[in-house]
Amino acid sequence: xxxxxxxxxxxxxxxxxxxxxxxxxxxxxxxxxxxxxxxxxxxxxxxxxxxxxxxxxxxxxxxxxxxxxxxxxxxxxxxxxxxxxxxxxxxxxxxxxxxxxxxxxxxxxxxxxxxxxxxxxxxxxxxxxxxxxxxxxxxx
Length: 140
Description:
Blueprint: H1 2-5, E1 11-14, H2 16-19, E2 24-26, E3 30-32, E4 39-43, E5 55-60, E6 62-63, E7 78-83, E8 85-89, E9 95-100, E10 104-111, E11 114-117, H3 125-137
Parallel strand pairs: 1-11, 2-4
Antiparallel strand pairs: 2-3, 4-8, 5-7, 6-9, 9-10, 10-11
């Protein structure tokens, strides 16, 4: 935590790593997160019974924010998800992208020198490689 909070080193949280960036998680009990992004982690509760949990598969990004790590990515790009919980972001500016799965599911969050993806960039082919490359070259 010191490297991120004190030294300002960039942090990329993937899946559960992104969820840890929240203020609180509400899985089996309420637990304190790192509080780097304002919000809570809650179970996905689809209103459509045909939608399975965990949410597994490819979804189209809807990019709503601007960030150097998103360079070369656009709305409609496919990324791969495997998760049962979602990040409910309290400050809209901290949510950079979402997907539609039983409503809007947060896909990318950012705050200061921290960025998180609910999807797995390492499994998301060209789009994931683009995001990882952008992160490695990012200087907050």
